[in-house]
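Ticket closed. Logging final result for protein-serine/threonine phosphatase.
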Amino acid sequence: MGIYLSTPKTEKFSEDGENDHLRYGLSSMQGWRSTMEDAHAAHTDLDESTSFFGVYDGHGGKVVAKFCAKFLHQQVLKSEAYAAGDIGTSLQKAFLRMDDMMHGQRGWRELATLGDKINKFSGMIEGLIWSPRSSDGNEQADDWVFEEGPHSDFAGPTSGSTACVAVIRNNQLVVANAGDSRCVISRKGQAYNLSRDHKPDLEIEKERIVKAGGFIHAGRINGSLNLARAIGDMEFKQNKYLPAEKQIVTANPDINTVELCDEDEFMVLACDGIWDCMSSQQLVDFIHEQLHSETKPSAVCERVLDRCLAPSTARGEGCDNMTMILVQFKKHAQSSAPSEEQSSSNGQVESEPKQETSET
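Final structure:
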């Protein structure tokens, strides 16, 4: 049957929500792909002052993306760094914790619960767009103790997932990214990338890959994976003499912190199924145009998905799974001056924001 369907699945999972500071809409669509491997999480009230949004683009299977959507925000909440107000560090630790949690009997069991084998018994259909409800597992204690069982030596999944996450607390926006999903903010109509696509040919990625014993062929790590950072993909994380952030593929995210101001209109988190078809500025322009006639954020996301869907699989672009979250900011209480990271005056869409925490 191959990786593409004969006709695309255009049914969409969409939802909207809001609190006193923001409103959001999201939409996901399987499209031409034979399976749906994206997942997402949207929690307007992670705690009394914080919102959390994340998109997860799976590859080689859907279970790692689902695992992240279910557990990553919980790990952020449970971090000592988060309790101390250090959102960036709590995000970094949560990304790396995902890999740790997917080992052993407990990890195997959780992944199996989210995977195809369990789906067959529960009657879930292939292609279901999966999003955790805010109550999914939020109350369970983070004991994650070692479990005896036939899979206690499970080394973790060979499949993987990108993770692009945004946490908003008051006027502070913290973005964590591993992979090629992307976060973009619109400031006075100008698109600014708040994340960097982690491709193997980036110098900083290439250096780590080679030092860890890997190689790049045809833009892919070991001729296989076209991402330099991801959660999962344990076959690329087997060097016992190196820490997690220095493995061939790492889950260690870039962290970017931005102070929101009154000129910030909205933020977009989306998987590469969108960015393969539209540049950051093209998407921002398209959203502005749609907001003239549409007030429901999820409906704007649906129009983006329809706009990106290819008429056929001949070229490949527009044939991927697509997931997008649109977050509109309500007016901010304080400074309206652009932050240092985002005050570039050259007007370039690809201007790099300052990455405050990055692999070295």
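The longest strand covers residues 4-18. No further action required.
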